[in-house]
Every structure is written in C-alpha cells, then in structure tokens.
Amino acid sequence: MEKSAATTQPEAATQAPDEVEMQIRGLMMDPVTNMPIVVLKDVASDVVLPIWVGIFEANAIAVELEKSAPPRPMTHDLLLNMARGLNATVRKVVVSELREDTFYAVIWMDQAGEMVALDSRPSDAIALALRWDCPIYVSRTVLESSKQSAASQTINEDDMKRWLENLNDDEMGRYKM
C-alpha cells in the first residue's frame, strides 16, 4: 500500500453518485498476452470492464470465487483476519483511477466508526471484497477513461465489448487459472 488516509465521512461506505456497482463476470486468460483478466460487469447494464491482473492475484480471486479452502491462509485471508482482529470492517472497494493504462483502487474500511481509505491494486481490493462479501464499485470517470483508452488501441472497442459480453461460462473457464 502506497499510502492511507482517514476520513470521517460516513457516506464513504455507501455508493457515491459517481460510482457504478459492478460484479465479477468471470476470470479468463488473455489469448494474446496469456495474462489473467478479471472481467467486471455493471449490475444495472451491459457495461463491462476488463482488468489485467497478475497470476497470483488472479489465483487469490479464483480461490474465493470457487469457495475452495487452501490448507493455509493466503495473503488476502491474512488481511481479512487482521482487519477483524482490529475490529475493522471492509465496507466497499472502488476502482478509482486509471492513469497511464494502470488501474488504482481504494479499500474503504470502518474502524471504530471512522472511515479509513487504503490505496490498493484493484486485484487485491477485489480479492478482499470477495472475502468480506462487500460491494465493488468503479468510478464513472474510470469507465469513460477505459473506453477512450481501448478506442485508442489497435483492438476495436466494439469488437472487444461484443467478445466480452458474449462469453459463455465455458469460455470464462469457470474461474480456473
């Protein structure tokens, strides 16, 4: 974590007007780069957001999606246990920024009535959100920026959107990494 900031804004734990609630549509491997992709989907529309993640982070997400229990706690399980031990609760995670093709996230925790914002990689925030069963949001500006970024790349944005929206469960690999 690069830095953390504390705030006393109680509304930080609820959906802000500039945030879109997302759910995990699935995990898959990018056929070109062979890197894992977490695919987030807007709960209220067909908008999707692919986020390329590392193999270890994808595994941590897959383990929780499959509800399999590793023999020893993984790093994200340690974070969950540490937060619980400190009487803190993860309220939500937000993919908050997209800078130079890198996504940034914030984990919002309630600790003794004080909202604490922790900087995070989106993959770690998502893995922790799954363990806490808390909502995942994406900033509207991130969704807009990702559309512009995708449009400027060699992959046609419409083709990518159709491909992601039309994936079936077999193509998503049932979260196997």
From TrEMBL:
PROSITE patterns named among the record's database cross-references: BFN
InterPro entries: BFN_sf, Bi_nuclease_dom
Molecular function terms, GO-annotated: nuclease activity
BFN domain: residues covered: 19-150
Source organism, top-level taxon: Bacteria
Transmembrane segments: none
Pfam families from the UniProt entry: BFN_dom
Protein name, per record: BFN domain-containing protein
Organism taxonomic ancestry: Bacteria, Pseudomonadati, Acidobacteriota, Terriglobia, Terriglobales
